[in-house]
Fold:
Amino acid sequence: MYTVCALYHFTHFADPAALRAPLLDLCQSSHVTGTLLLAHEGINGTIAGPKAGIDAVLAHIRTLPGCSDLEWKLSTSTDRPFARMKVRLKKEIVTMGQPDVDPKAKVGHYVDPADWNALITSPDVAVIDTRNDYEVAIGTFEGAVDPETATFREFPQWWEKNKDRFHNKRIAMFCTGGIRCEKSTNFLIGQGVEEVYHLKGGILKYLEEVPASDSTWNGSCFVFDGRVSVDHGLAEGPHVLCHACRRPILPEDRDRPEYEHGVSCHLCVDQTSDEDKARFRERQKQIALSHARGERHLHADEDDHPMERGNG
Structure:
């Protein structure tokens, strides 16, 4: 059984590059895999490994500047969620592309999972899902607005076009683990929205703490690791990943005529050219040959999502 740890923390790192090597070395020596992002604004990522290894990495992160009050969320996975460990330097730990947004200055009102249902069912509250379209497609809260954005970077533009819909409304926002709401609530405050709320700990904390019998959540929650999705109690969900477009699909979707392993699914079959599909088939052929030789192909366990990553 693997311990999975999702974390983020906004703080100022004067020299993120100097933090990278010691953090990577510790993760590797502790048999921890996953991805951590470092930027001047803080740290974000999901890692997995033995509980002792995760504890060692968390202890190290808490010694970094401003990280003594780091919070994280733990869950488990029966299979290894990540193939290798990566610590990457980024401009932002979750990309919004708004240089004036600063979650360290001010964010919306945190709402505990136990209080979330009462808030979002209030008639004067508009609920907005800040995640990307492929995440919303497999699960969201009842009555939530789907901005239909492909990346978090598109959210400010969507708000500008749609803000009049929410006149005289209190705004409640949610995302996977909370990080995107740190930025989106700060953004809305900067846009003059007076009452902004967000789900503390994100969907993951809600699914962990709120019983299914009391839940207003419908579907599964997409996660950026090998589990693909989780349900109430953070139990592993039913979804698998299309290794062509990296979107979540259900096991029965592999029986559809559009599905070809590593090449296409019903969500992406019309989005790639014949040349793309030929390249994907060659990749799958090389993966199979490497597997037959008892080797691991470079792309056999690709962790990265080509869309927006994050514990959002």
Summary: Residues 274-292 form the longest helix (19 residues). The chain has three domains: 2-89, 109-219, 239-312.
